[in-house]
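Can anyone check this?
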Amino acid sequence: MSPAAPARDVRRLAIVALVLLAAAVALMAVASSGALAGRDVGTAVGLADERRPAATATALVVTEIGNTAASAGLALVVGGALAWRGFRAEGLCVALVPLLTSVVFTALKRVLDRPRPPEELQVMAVANESLPSGHAAMAAAAWTVLVLVLWPRCAARGRALLAGFAVLWVVAVGITRIYLGVHWLSDVLAGWALGAGLAFAGVAVLAAVTARRAAEV
C-alpha cells in the first residue's frame, strides 16, 4: 500500500464525519426552531394509529435491548476482546466512541431542552429531554464503529452480514422510539446522524494514529 493510501482513508473518514455531524447540527437547529413540528406530529400520530398489540410488544423488547446502556456494554465487550487479542488501539476506539456519544447527546439534551411527545402518545412514560434521541445516537455510534473497525478483518460474506445487521438494528431501534411515542422523528434522525458522525470521527483519529505509527517504523 502506498504512503498516500492511509492519508486518503483518513480524509475520507473525516469528510464523512463532518457531513454527518453537520447534518446532525442542522437537524437539531431546525427541529428546535419548530420548523419540523408538522412532520413530527404527523409521523407520531400516524404510527400511534397503526399500533397493534403484537407490534407494540415487539417494539418494547427491541427498544429495551437497544437502550443506551446495552449499546455501551456491547462496545465495551467488543473493545475489550479486540484489546485482549492485541488490537489495543482498535479496542480503545470501539469502547470510547459510544461513551463519548453518551456525553455529547446528554449535554445536547440539556442545552436544547426539547419536550417529549405528549403523554397521550406515549406507550411508556418518559419525561426527560427529547432531542436528540439517546437510543438512536448510541445504537448508531456503537454499530457504526463496530462495522468500520471490524470491516478489514472480515471476509466479504462477513462484511455483508455485519453491515446488514447493523443497519437493520439501528433503524429498528430508532423506529421503535417514534412508534412508542417517546421521541419525535427529528429526534431520531438527529441521533442517527450524531452517533454515526462521532463513530466516523473516532475511526478517522484511529486511522491517523495508525498511519503515523506505520510511517515511524
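Reply from J.R.: I decoded it. The CA atoms of residues 139 and 203 lie 16 Å apart.
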